[in-house]
Design brief:
Strand order of the largest sheet: 1-2-3-4-5-6-8-7
CATH architecture: 3-Layer(aba) Sandwich
Order of helices and strands: EEHHHEEEHEHEE
Radius of gyration: 15 Å
CATH topology: Aminopeptidase
CATH class: Alpha Beta
Helix content: 25-40%
Shape: globular
Structural class: alpha+beta
Number of helices: 5
Number of strands: 8
Bound molecules: coenzyme A
Strand content: 25-35%
Distance between the termini: 28 Å
Largest sheet: 8 strands, mixed
């Protein structure tokens, strides 16, 4: 099922057929460097039996939310993913976070797709979807301070840094207007 389209991207639900592409994405240390799976060696079998079934189960539990595969519209090539999910459902949920009902935004693109504004474009589309269709009250994202490209993507889309967080990990947030 397609969630949304932007001028250059299609965001759709993951299927079992995406296992190799997701494995390749998660196997690139340049891509995972600033993520929660940094330093880990992914296994294709785990992606098949745990990760993808988990993504698919989440679509059923909360329609419109989840981790969505991103394809380039023109080529239909898999380039990564974008995510919207209740922050409470994150494995790294922080119980001290002052806005526990926020919706978390995330994204991960393969290295060859970087530097063309695709992350910013996907985030723009997802924010519009989150606020207008899902009627999310606020969207937040966690980012390691060192991840300058990701900070830029968030700031370009209007998210601002909260006082909450620490020197290494920043929380960004945007409320629906
Ligand atoms: C972060 C990520 C999604 C950015 O994707 P992208 O499509 O290249 O991003 P965009 O092109 O939309 O925007 C990146 C911006 O950061 C800038 N940028 C890129 N690398 C930078 C760096 N090292 N320092 C400062 N700015 C940088 C770009 O110039 C661009 O800004 P501009 O539009 O003003 O020129 C991509 O690098 C990625 O998938 N990284 C791995 C996963 C990840 O870290 N996810 C985020 C976890 S919070």
């Amino acid at each position: 099922m397609t969630l949304l389209e932007t001028p250059r991207l299609v965001l759709r639900e993951f299927t079992a057929a995406d296992a190799e592409a997701l494995f390749e994405l998660n196997s690139d240390p340049r891509v995972t460097r600033y993520t929660d799976i940094a330093g880990q060696t992914p296994e294709l079998a785990t992606i098949r039996t745990v990760d993808l079934p988990g993504y698919r189960a989440a679509y059923a539990l909360a329609p419109g939310y989840g981790v969505f595969a991103a394809l380039e519209r023109e080529t239909q090539e898999f380039i990564g993913w974008f995510m919207l999910r209740p922050f409470r459902a994150a494995p790294y949920f922080d119980s001290g976070y002052p806005f526990p009902n926020d919706i978390e935004l995330g994204y991960r693109l393969k290295f060859s797709a970087w530097g063309r504004g695709l992350a910013s474009e996907g985030v723009k589309g997802l924010l519009h979807y989150g606020f207008e269709t899902l009627r999310a009250g606020a969207v937040m994202a966690l980012v390691l301070t060192e991840n300058a490209a990701s900070v830029k993507v968030l700031e370009k889309n209007g998210l601002t840094k909260l006082a909450y967080g620490n020197a290494a990990l920043h929380f960004y947030r945007l409320e629906r207007v």
